[in-house]
Amino acid sequence: xxxxxxxxxxxxxxxxxxxxxxxxxxxxxxxxxxxxxxxxxxxxxxxxxxxxxxxxxxxxxxxxxxxxxxxxxxxxxxxxxxxxxxxxxxxxxxxxxxxxxxxxxxxxxxxxxxxxxxxxxxxxxxxxxxxxxxxxxxxxxxxxxxxxxxxxxxxxxxxxxxxxxxxxxxxxxxxxxxxxxxxxxxxxxxxxxxxxxxxxxxxxxxxxxxxxxxxxxxxxxxxxxxxxxxxxxxxxxxxxxxxxxxxxxxxxxxxxxxxxxxxxxxxxxxxxxxxxxxxxxxxxxxxxxxxxxxxxxxxxxxxxxxxxxxxxxxxxxxxxxxxxxxxxxxxxxxxxxxxxxxxxxxxxxxxxxxxxxxxxxxxxxxxxxxxxxxxxxxxxxxxxxxxxxxxxxxxxxxxxxxxxxxxxxxxxxxxxxxxxxxxx
Length: 424
Ligand SMILES: Cc1cc2nc3c(=O)[nH]c(=O)nc-3n(C[C@H](O)[C@H](O)[C@H](O)COP(=O)(O)OP(=O)(O)OC[C@H]3O[C@@H](n4cnc5c(N)ncnc54)[C@H](O)[C@@H]3O)c2cc1C
What we know:
Blueprint: H1 9-14, E1 29-31, H2 36-49, E2 52-56, E3 71-75, E4 82-85, E5 90-93, H3 99-108, E6 112-113, H4 124-130, H5 137-140, E7 147-153, E8 159-162, H6 168-174, E9 184-191, E10 193-194, E11 198-206, H7 210-220, E12 228-235, E13 242-249, E14 267-273, H8 275-285, E15 291-299, H9 303-315, E16 323-328, E17 346-354, H10 360-375, H11 398-411
Parallel strand pairs: 1-3, 2-3
Antiparallel strand pairs: 4-5, 5-9, 6-10, 7-8, 7-9, 11-13, 11-14, 12-13, 12-16, 15-17, 16-17
């Protein structure tokens, strides 16, 4: 264990946090297990010493959920298993495996795909536990819907396998509780899909076209195929005072409905693509080494309600890299019974991205201020793009949240694992 005062402690505590705005919180110590037996030892050590446990897989949580005052931080970065069973189509992956950089090329060798995160370096652990909004997720479902089992070290320090049939309560909780999960997942068992051809289309519009664009999108969204991911992105990378209409499809071609857009595109790029190529663009939009603040909102509000709020937000992007998205989610089916339970017609998310530490509070105020206004016309947030140290909000349906806390009370009665309260 690396403890406060030991050489390299600060690096061990926050070095693998993606966000360059590192938290000032101080863990009681950091351990880097390389085997499941070492994870068991770490959980038992925390219990013996009267410490809580926090966990890190890929380190991509914007709010650095893994770094908690006084907790023993179990950093799973050293565990790197990836397997694939051609007979069942099931892959297994360690939680620190990166969805894009590692899982995607590994599955491509087998002609398979998985709905991993849109940014290639996101770790599977946090991504899958919180839901997992991945490639082709409108059709293949949330990442967590494609988890068929987990290996998990419980608060008792036991390694168990959980799925629909055994330890089903843990399995239910693991699919959506995110940073509130009460166990250490050491392995995910994943349903993979046959590889599909992918198509990309980007149209650039003047920001002044946002109003007709949004009205049209809200009108066509119910008819768009579920293999289409339609996104409006406001970004200053590229032409100023513009918005992009991006869509990827997993049908090998574009959806003809997209050609009915009523505004004139200033530029239009389209053609076949791959997850690897799309990841390159996403990495440019989410550069490493910058300070980030993120917030989100689910909403069923109509275009007329959203337009003035989004126009203000899009016109004010504070830095070159900052961006904001309108994502046409339009759920086409009921979610299975699991902790993850909050989604709406449209997903909104905003990311302030900057490098000057002196501007931290200004940019945080900007993101969370805009999203507080969006929250007045929305119904909660997605854990993946949330920071409860600034703006707590609902992230599960009420009955699911109640059930989660009831399972926690049985599985982790002493509160060994940290939960959603994290301080600043
Ligand atoms: C550049 C970038 C792009 C992103 N793009 C997407 C996207 O396209 N779709 C999307 O859904 N999200 C996206 N996110 C959000 C991201 O998925 C979440 O922040 C997620 O938590 C990251 O997982 P991680 O393992 O890397 O994070 P970590 O910070 O390591 O983990 C976050 C928390 O999850 C819990 N946790 C992680 N691993 C385990 C485990 N093995 N056992 C128990 N608990 C665990 C812990 O509470 C931990 O503190 C993006 C984030 C970034 C930085």
